[in-house]
Design brief:
Elements: E1 3-7, H1 11-22, E2 26-31, E3 42-45, H2 47-56, H3 59-63, E4 71-75, E5 81-86, H4 87-90, E6 98-101, H5 102-109, E7 115-118, E8 122-128, E9 131-136, E10 141-144, E11 146-149, H6 156-162, E12 168-182, E13 190-196, E14 199-204, E15 211-219, H7 230-240, H8 248-256, E16 262-270, E17 275-276, E18 279-281, H9 284-287, H10 296-314, H11 318-337, H12 339-347, H13 352-364, H14 371-386
Parallel strand pairs: 1-2, 1-11, 2-7, 4-13, 11-18
Antiparallel strand pairs: 3-6, 4-5, 8-9, 9-10, 12-15, 12-16, 13-14, 14-15, 17-18
Helix pairs in contact: 1-5, 1-10, 2-10, 10-11
Organism: Micromonospora robiginosa
Protein name: FAD-dependent monooxygenase
InterPro entries: FAD-bd, FAD/NAD-bd_sf, FAD_aromatic-hydroxylase
Length: about 400
């Protein structure tokens, strides 16, 4: 039986473990977090990724955890409503697409009969023709037939196996921050949004949630600041939103107390190859599309499915399996990465005039002739990218 070590217990890593086990492999998942990360933010699952969930028998269970979001409301600096929008249209979702919290999705994907090493990480890889010797932070060393990095934008596996020169991080000129805030700062199943030139703040509370999530988007600071530790992230966020109106000061104060504050530059990963010998990459570690694409979760689900199927088809020839995975996934990745720049243009506007024009158009939209066609045109590029792959049979 082929032993595969997967670094990362997020969407891509958990889905890959599920499918490798399905194909007769013996996966192990190592995750630096001390326990499963059941928090996070809301994510969309569309197109081919929904087919993957259906083939796992999980589509119904995932839909049962739908966020139930109803509206997006745009507010000025005094909290007055500028415009409102249906939540599905705001998220670019077509019929059948589903929006869930990331923690709910990863919990459903996690296979109970797969070994998990929480609170541990990979510190060294020593690969040869027959396998990969892995050294862990806890100090032990084990040998695996294959290692797959599903450990995100700043992948440790990618750095150890491929070296710093093998990846191009394509910055999109913006930062994103997400954290948990008190429920009272949000409305039930409503996304509150406050746009200002060069920055946007949002806060929402999903159906039945005991707390809310705040989202901060802003033009990247000069020098593309690496915020580093939690205190550094708080300082960058406070500086980026100094003087902002509405309830932004309250949200910043809540973010300062949030232990789960995430802040990073929005970037894409571009690599000439996603494998090196017996080590491969999947999800954000290989081809991050950035949160601006709205497709990171779907890329992780589809990539995990395609990689597991390709390795199974290759039957002990990992180089052939990795090559087949890459051939099938490349066009899909390219199509979904292309969404990010387009989406960012509407997420963070550059001037007060652009904000006024956008909100005026949103107010007019329900009254315009041919509204349904216009809505369809908005969602069409996302739908097209989400279905830009033919999945192999599950077998």
């Amino acid at each position: 039986m082929t032993d595969v070590l997967i670094s990362g217990a997020g969407v891509a890593g958990s889905a890959l473990a599920w499918w490798l086990r399905h194909h007769g492999f013996r996966p192990t998942v190592v995750e630096r977090a001390p326990s499963p990360r059941d928090g996070g933010y809301k994510v969309d699952v569309r197109g081919a990724a929904l087919t993957v969930l259906e083939r796992m028998g999980l589509a119904g269970r995932v839909r049962a955890h739908d966020t139930g979001m109803r509206l997006a409301r745009f507010l000025d600096d005094r909290g007055r409503q500028l415009a409102t929008m249906d939540a599905a249209l705001f998220g670019g979702r077509s019929t059948g697409d589903v929006e869930v919290m990331r923690g709910d999705l990863t919990r459903l994907l996690r296979a109970d009969d797969v070994e998990h090493r929480f609170g541990d990480s990979i510190t060294a890889l020593d690969a040869d023709a027959g396998g990969v010797d892995v050294t862990f932070a806890r100090g032990d060393r084990r040998r695996y037939d294959l290692v797959v990095g599903a450990d995100g934008l700043h992948s440790t596996v990618r750095r150890l196996a491929f070296g710093p020169g093998s990846v191009h991080l394509r910055p999109l000129g913006h930062h994103i921050a997400v954290c948990t805030v008190p429920a009272g700062l949000a409305e039930d199943r409503v996304e509150l949004l406050h746009p200002e030139p060069g920055r946007t703040v949002g806060v929402y509370r999903t159906a039945g949630a005991p707390d809310a999530r705040a989202l901060f988007l802003f033009r990247s600071p000069a020098g593309d600041t690496d915020a580093g530790d939690l205190a550094g992230r708080r300082d960058v966020l406070t500086g980026a939103f100094a003087g902002a109106g509405w309830r932004v000061p309250e949200l910043l104060a809540a973010a300062a107390d949030a232990p789960d504050l995430y802040l990073d530059a929005m970037s894409q990963v571009v690599m000439p190859s996603w494998s090196s010998g017996r080590v491969g990459l999947v999800g954000d570690a290989a081809y991050a599309a950035s949160p601006a694409s709205g497709q990171g979760t779907s890329l992780g689900l589809v990539g995990a499915y395609v990689l597991a199927a390709a390795l199974a088809e290759a039957a002990g020839r990992p180089a052939d399996g990795f090559a087949a995975y890459e051939r099938r996934m490349r066009p899909f990745v390219d199509a979904n990465q292309a969404l990010a720049q387009r989406n960012l243009k509407g997420m963070v506007l550059g001037s007060t005039g652009q904000i006024r024009f956008q909100t005026a158009m949103l107010r007019l939209l329900p009254h315009l002739p041919g509204r349904e066609r216009m809505v369809g045109r908005v969602a069409e590029p996302i739908r097209r990218a989400a279905t830009a792959i033919t999945l192999p049979d599950a077998a």
